Amino acid sequence: MWQVWPIVNDGRSVVRLGNWQGRRGRPGRMKTMARHVRISRRGAAFAVSAVVLVLFAAQPASAAVAEGLAAPYLHIQLALANDSMDGVNDAASTMAAEAEGMGAPARMIAATARALAGASDIETARAAFGPLSDALIAYGEEVGFGELRIAYCPMVDKSWVQAGSELRNPFYGSQMLTCGSFVEVGSR
Q: Are residues 158 and 73 in the same domain?
């Protein structure tokens, strides 16, 4: 039960939960969000509700591979699967910038995405896509993949991340578009 305790004569109050008393019969120290505020019982309930909502809404952005990483990565994966370089360099640059803003856990993604952003032809891009995929998979194994899946190509002994249930091999493109299989997270 919430209680409002006056603490001084100027109208300030302390909100407390329960009837816990500190030593010598004095009210215990406040361990909630409101210490010296003007707040009613209804206001206290609202404040607690607001804090709970904020805490749940403020879950880390990395609860699964962030959209800022997934969208450009998937663009690169599909472009390479379609034997195209359209937008690959721009998507890799976008991915590098997004990963740099995520700090240490995504540092390897940023480095490998920058390397891919400098690719001048599709073979170089495919070679750089392998390390980028490895970095994204390592990151995703920590934070989760959401709806994304890991696929593995035994011909190049490399994995990649993709959406959907139809294999689209970025390492061989139209030569071997469906080469590979989906694998479980952590099994590669």
A: yes
